[in-house]
């Protein structure tokens, strides 16, 4: 297998600054509350101008939720790459490995958990996250229809199956954040999906 190309130095530096901004912002959000903290305060804490901040994030919401756009793209690519003869529920679970690997990585677990707690605490952020999840479900439904030959307009089963899988991911991630990471996200995803799995073969 051909090794993947290394990440360019400029991109590594950009990611490092973005990560620093997230960490600084989290500290401010915990101290003052998400809604009270301004972009100017985040930029000042990082020793940069407001204009420079916007080179890395388009808004405060994007600072908190931008990584979910990236993860959604990876989930779409992951599901599309699964074997077409694989049971769909298995394909969903294996696609979720991308999310589990990200949040269970030791170097980012604490920050990711704090991110999740902040998002759950503010309705505007929860709304932004669920909007992204809704878009992910729509994209997954398209992929599943491509695998199964489509569905009739009055047939809700594909959308229901995809929605159930994404709901299992959400339930696992909320539990993961609230239980202090005493169990890995991968383990919690398994537990959530195993609850529904018998229905898939009934």
Structure characterization notes:
The structure is a single chain. This protein is mainly α and 202 residues long. It folds into 2 domains: 1-57, Homeodomain-like (Arc Repressor Mutant, subunit A), CATH 1.10.10.60; 62-201, Tetracycline Repressor, domain 2, CATH 1.10.357. 76% of the residues lie in helices and 0% in strands. The chain contains 10 helices and no strands. α1 crosses α7, α4 packs parallel to α8 (123-148) and α7 (109-121) crosses α8 (123-148). The chain is elongated, with a radius of gyration of 19 Å. The protein starts with 8 loop residues before the first helix and ends with a helix.
| Count of structural domains | 2
Which CATH class of the largest domain?
Mainly Alpha
Q: Determine Rg (CA atoms, Å).
A: 19 Å
Helix proportion: over 70%
Mean pLDDT equals 87
Short description:
With 202 residues, the protein is mainly alpha-helical. 76% of the residues lie in helices and 0% in strands. The protein has two domains: 1-57, Arc Repressor Mutant, subunit A (Orthogonal Bundle); 62-201, Orthogonal Bundle (Tetracycline Repressor, domain 2).
